[in-house]
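[step 3/7] fold_predict: job queued, chain A
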Amino acid sequence: MNELENIDNINIDDLYNRIVTLIEKAKMNVAVKVNNEMTFLYWNIGKDITENVLKNQKAEYGKSVIKKLSQKLVIEYGRGYSTRNIFRMLKFYDYFPDIENLSTLSAKLS
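[step 4/7] structure written:
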Protein backbone atom coordinates (compact mmCIF):
# COMPACT_ATOMS: atom_id res chain seq x y z
CA MET A 1 0.00 0.00 0.00
CA ASN A 2 1.44 3.35 -0.87
CA GLU A 3 1.59 6.30 1.46
CA LEU A 4 -1.39 8.15 -0.10
CA GLU A 5 -3.80 5.22 0.31
CA ASN A 6 -3.29 4.66 4.02
CA ILE A 7 -2.01 7.50 6.18
CA ASP A 8 -2.01 6.68 9.89
CA ASN A 9 -4.59 3.91 9.33
CA ILE A 10 -7.00 6.22 7.49
CA ASN A 11 -8.19 4.75 4.24
CA ILE A 12 -8.18 7.69 1.85
CA ASP A 13 -10.46 5.93 -0.63
CA ASP A 14 -13.13 5.34 2.03
CA LEU A 15 -12.82 8.91 3.28
CA TYR A 16 -13.01 10.21 -0.28
CA ASN A 17 -16.13 8.14 -1.00
CA ARG A 18 -17.87 9.40 2.16
CA ILE A 19 -17.05 13.02 1.31
CA VAL A 20 -18.22 12.57 -2.29
CA THR A 21 -21.52 11.17 -0.98
CA LEU A 22 -21.95 14.21 1.28
CA ILE A 23 -21.17 16.60 -1.57
CA GLU A 24 -23.56 14.88 -3.98
CA LYS A 25 -26.35 14.80 -1.40
CA ALA A 26 -25.90 18.51 -0.66
CA LYS A 27 -25.91 19.33 -4.39
CA MET A 28 -29.15 17.37 -4.84
CA ASN A 29 -30.75 19.15 -1.86
CA VAL A 30 -29.76 22.53 -3.29
CA ALA A 31 -31.19 21.62 -6.71
CA VAL A 32 -34.49 20.52 -5.15
CA LYS A 33 -34.75 23.74 -3.14
CA VAL A 34 -33.90 25.92 -6.15
CA ASN A 35 -36.48 24.12 -8.31
CA ASN A 36 -39.09 24.52 -5.58
CA GLU A 37 -38.39 28.25 -5.23
CA MET A 38 -38.48 28.75 -9.00
CA THR A 39 -41.82 26.95 -9.19
CA PHE A 40 -43.31 29.26 -6.58
CA LEU A 41 -41.70 32.32 -8.19
CA TYR A 42 -43.26 31.56 -11.58
CA TRP A 43 -46.62 30.83 -9.94
CA ASN A 44 -46.49 34.12 -8.01
CA ILE A 45 -45.59 36.07 -11.15
CA GLY A 46 -48.56 34.52 -12.94
CA LYS A 47 -50.80 35.28 -9.98
CA ASP A 48 -49.68 38.90 -9.67
CA ILE A 49 -50.17 39.63 -13.36
CA THR A 50 -53.52 37.82 -13.46
CA GLU A 51 -54.93 39.58 -10.41
CA ASN A 52 -53.40 43.05 -10.77
CA VAL A 53 -52.99 43.58 -14.50
CA LEU A 54 -55.44 41.32 -16.23
CA LYS A 55 -58.02 41.52 -13.44
CA ASN A 56 -58.81 37.85 -14.18
CA GLN A 57 -59.50 38.56 -17.87
CA LYS A 58 -57.82 36.68 -20.71
CA ALA A 59 -54.10 37.24 -21.23
CA GLU A 60 -54.69 38.91 -24.61
CA TYR A 61 -55.98 41.95 -22.73
CA GLY A 62 -52.61 42.73 -21.21
CA LYS A 63 -50.40 41.72 -24.13
CA SER A 64 -48.77 45.15 -24.49
CA VAL A 65 -48.21 45.45 -20.74
CA ILE A 66 -46.66 41.99 -20.61
CA LYS A 67 -44.44 42.78 -23.59
CA LYS A 68 -43.13 45.96 -21.92
CA LEU A 69 -42.67 44.16 -18.61
CA SER A 70 -40.80 41.37 -20.35
CA GLN A 71 -38.44 43.78 -22.10
CA LYS A 72 -37.46 45.31 -18.76
CA LEU A 73 -37.11 41.95 -16.99
CA VAL A 74 -34.99 40.45 -19.78
CA ILE A 75 -32.52 43.33 -19.51
CA GLU A 76 -32.15 42.78 -15.76
CA TYR A 77 -32.67 39.01 -15.37
CA GLY A 78 -32.21 37.35 -18.76
CA ARG A 79 -34.20 35.44 -21.36
CA GLY A 80 -36.10 33.43 -18.77
CA TYR A 81 -38.50 36.36 -18.57
CA SER A 82 -39.32 36.59 -22.27
CA THR A 83 -42.88 37.45 -23.28
CA ARG A 84 -43.42 33.80 -24.16
CA ASN A 85 -42.24 32.63 -20.75
CA ILE A 86 -44.37 35.18 -18.92
CA PHE A 87 -47.40 33.88 -20.80
CA ARG A 88 -46.39 30.39 -19.63
CA MET A 89 -46.32 31.69 -16.06
CA LEU A 90 -49.85 33.00 -16.58
CA LYS A 91 -50.97 29.59 -17.84
CA PHE A 92 -49.22 27.89 -14.94
CA TYR A 93 -51.15 30.02 -12.48
CA ASP A 94 -54.34 29.47 -14.48
CA TYR A 95 -53.88 25.67 -14.25
CA PHE A 96 -53.02 25.74 -10.54
CA PRO A 97 -54.81 28.72 -8.95
CA ASP A 98 -54.90 27.01 -5.55
CA ILE A 99 -51.61 27.32 -3.65
CA GLU A 100 -52.36 24.09 -1.75
CA ASN A 101 -52.52 22.09 -4.98
CA LEU A 102 -49.32 23.75 -6.13
CA SER A 103 -47.56 22.85 -2.87
CA THR A 104 -48.58 19.22 -3.31
CA LEU A 105 -47.43 19.20 -6.92
CA SER A 106 -44.16 20.92 -6.10
CA ALA A 107 -43.37 18.34 -3.41
CA LYS A 108 -44.03 15.53 -5.89
CA LEU A 109 -41.88 17.14 -8.57
CA SER A 110 -39.00 17.53 -6.15
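[step 5/7] annotate
The first strand starts at residue 6 and ends at 7.
The mean pLDDT is 88.
exit 0
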